[in-house]
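Subject: sequence -> C-alpha cells, single chain

Hey, anyone have a minute? Need the predicted structure for the following. Not urgent.
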Amino acid sequence: MTTVTDLQWKQIVVGGIAPHVLSTGLLIVAIVAYTFLLAFGTGGEPDPGALQEFNTISGTQIYPIVTILLTVVAAGWVARRVDPDTVMLHGVAVGILAGLVGFAFGALDAMMVVRFVFTVGAGVLGARLSPVILDD
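Reply:
Had a minute. Here:
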C-alpha cells in the first residue's frame, strides 16, 4: 500500500508549478512579439484594440490549453523518476497541484472547475504515457 510519505513531493511540486511558469513565460513572449509585429507592421504605435483582443484571447483561451498540455509533459517527467508502483499516484498529485495553482489565475466558476478536471486528467495521462512521452 502506497502512503503519502512514499511520494516524491519535491518532484510533484516542480511538476505542478512548472506548467504555469512555462505557460506564463510563453504568454509574455507571445504578447511582446505580437506588440512588436503590430508596431513594425504599422510603422507606429500599435492599435490598442488589437492588442487588447489578442491579450484577451491568448490569456483566457490559449493559456489554459497550453498549461494543460504542459501538465501532461510535467506529469510524465515526474512519473519517469519514481517507483513504478506509484506512477499513477504521482500523476494524479501533479495534476491536482497544477489544477490548484490554476485557481490562482482565474475566477472560481464552472469553466475553472472544468479546467481543473482536465488538468488532473492531464496529470493521469502524463503518468500513463510517460514511457512514450519521454522515451529514453
